[in-house]
Amino acid sequence: MQILLIVDDEPNIVEGLASQFEQRYADSVIVLKSFSGEHALSVLRNNKVDVVLSDIRMPDIDGLELIRETEQLWPKTHFVFLSGFDDFDYIHRASKSSIYRGYLLKMEGDEVVLEKVDREIRLCAEEMQAEIEHDQMRDFARRAALESMLRGGGSWQDFLSQMKDSWLHIDTKRPIFMVLGKCPRHRAAEGIQMMPQLNGLLAAQAPGLSYELLFPEDGTLVWLLQKKDESLSFGAEQYIHALFGAIQQQLNDTWGLAVSMIIGKACSFGSTLEQYSRLNHIYDMIARDTGSLIIVDESDYSGVLLNNDHRALQERFVFSAFVHRLDQQLHTGTRESVRELFDEYFGKAGGPVLRVDGLYSEQQLTLFTLLLTFVREKGMEGSYDQTLTRMLDSFLRGENRAEPEQFLGKMAAFCEDLCKQRIENEIHNTEAIIRRINRYVEDHIEDYDLSLTELARMTGFNPSYLSRLYRLHTGKKLSEHIDEVKLRHAQSLILSGTMVKHVAERTGFASPSAFILFFKRNTGKTPRQFFEEQEQSAAPKGDPAGK
Questions:
Q1: Cα gap 547→532, rounded to integer Å
Q2: Average pLDDT of the chain, as a whole number
Q3: pLDDT per residue over 6-17, tens digit each?
Q4: What is the percentage of the chain residues whose pLDDT exceeds 90?
């Protein structure tokens, strides 16, 4: 989503253009309004703006100072001037700015302005895409060399002799971690196309890590990871497992991309080829034929490579996959999908994948731990906590061993109920968010800065997401709701006898003329006409004012 800022000390111009742009762009562009240079600068300090459409001559901060400040804050912004005068000296000085994108006269008409802003909005998007493509081309050679090294196409010494140190995101003299990811081969190309999203996920969730993301073979992803600061004290192996567990779930939930993962131990850069082969071997041994989503650690399974006890390892893996999928279903699934999952692993159709009477005690405890964590994470203590405690107590007394099928049935029913309650809570939470927004708008309707951006900051949501969420659950735009509340508040003030200039101030408008324009656009009447009509309709019969 892009942001357009319109700046002019003539409110009718700002309101008129903003209305047209909002209709033109709908939810794809956020339109911010400002009626002074000082306020516009405040907006720019709090929002990354893509295009600024600004008057030149303003009483507090003129357009030249505003463009200088904008260039310092956002050097990629496109700045367009709109003025009622041929300010050639202003134009000459403004053109020296790297973000200056043109000058329009107000007398040229709205259509010229709309077309110019359309072009700048489009160019902003194209420039952003071009920068991404440039970075991708620069990184292509580095990734190709690293991928060739993993495939055995050269030694790491050869790689280092060919590459510039500044090209690498990791320090080859320090230990690194490798994570091997496997996605379905028929979606291998899709995995490569998702590189920006994959990079974005890791960069957002782990700013303390440096990394390289590689695609050495079809359906195979490899992350080489390293702590940016050697002094960081977190337990690296556990941290990376937790991190990639979250990334794995997001890939599956958001894009439907099932990526199984093997988390490698720390090793030297020179050992990456051997580790890559080892992680592939672990994957081939335990996961290739299962079709299930897994995440396991090399340290848990590398020892098994030295013996032939594959069956026990396979059973351990299958249970790990079940627990992982159950966790996903509890967070995103339905009662029906939870039941299907239990049937898939423990059902009788085609023979059960897991035998409930064959589960180890620690595996059953793992289930209890998963459920207890979920209950507390979602704030479902109380009856759920008590039920889980009774089930755990029964397990510790050994009652499950006598009736394993009954234990499984209780566990499945409990999980189904948790899923149902989570869905109900999510609906209530969304309703609570909507109520919070509406209450905030009512309480702050006299604030000048009340806007979608401010409400997004208050709720902690992305503005685009918040706008869609509000429209989905109320059937109207958030900006429309703000205008409705402003209008009701203004009508109440007018009927109480408040002067128009004070009504304008108390409803967040910079001037009476801007308020009158807003009021007439929404009611078809001026504030005075509205007041007189209401007075006449309220006058008793026989009163001259009611005639």
A1: 13
A2: 79
A3: 999 888 888 888
A4: 10
Asked if residue 260 lies in contact with residue 293, where contact means CB atoms within 8 angstroms, the answer is yes
Distance between CA atoms of residues 32 and 129, nearest Å: 24
Cα→Cα distances 361→324, 353, 449, Å: 18, 18, 59
- Chain Cα centroid distance, residue 217: 30
Q: What is the DSSP string of 515-538?
A: HHHHHHHHHSS-HHHHHHHHHHHH
Angle between helices 404-443 and 478-495 (to 10 degrees): 40
Per residue in 95-114, pLDDT (tens digit) is 889 999 988 888 887 888 89
Contact 65, 36 (CB under 8 A): no
- Which residues, 6 or more positions from 165, have their beta carbon under 8 angstroms from its beta carbon? none
Q: How far apart are CA 433 and CA 435, in angstroms?
A: 5
Task: Determine the pLDDT at residue 494.
Answer: 92
Q: Tell me the two tokens of residue 148.
A: 């060739």
Q: Using CA atoms, how far apart are residues 110 and 118, in angstroms rounded to an integer? A: 12
Closest CA to 15 of 492, 488, 485, 479: 479
Q: Which residues contact 461 (CB under 8 A, 6 or more apart)?
A: 469
65: left (phi over 0), alpha (psi -120 to 50) or beta: alpha
Q: What is the pLDDT of residue 234?
A: 47
**b/e code 70-97 from CB counts within 10 Å (16+ = b):** bbeebeebbbbbbbeeebeebeeebeee
CA dist., res. 300 & res. 369, Å (int): 20
d(CA 284, CA 277): 11
| CB distance 83 to 55 below 8 Å | yes
Place of tokens 């904008």: 70
Q: Indicate the range of 49-58, 278-287, 390-399 predicted with least confidence.
A: 390-399
CA–CA separation, 450 and 508 (whole Å): 8
Among candidate residues 156, 153, 152, the one with its CA nearest the CA of residue 267: 156
Cβ neighbours of 52 (radius 10 Å): 28
Single-letter code of the amino acid located at 187: R
Q: Take residue 487 and report the two structure tokens written for it.
A: 């209008």
What is the side-by-side strand order in the sheet with 260-263? 209-217, 220-227, 177-182, 260-263, 295-297
- Cβ pair 409, 391 in contact under 8 A: no
Checking DSSP bridges between strand 260-263 and strand 177-182, what pairing results, if any? antiparallel
Q: Crossing angle, helix 11-25 and helix 110-150, to 10 degrees? A: 50
Nearest to 78 by CA among 22, 129, 117: 117
Give which of 70, 74, 128, 67 is closest to 103, Cα–Cα.
67
How far CA 127 is from CA of 120, 122, 131, 134, in Å, comes to 10, 9, 6, 10
Listed residue (172, 279, 177) closest to 226, CA to CA: 177
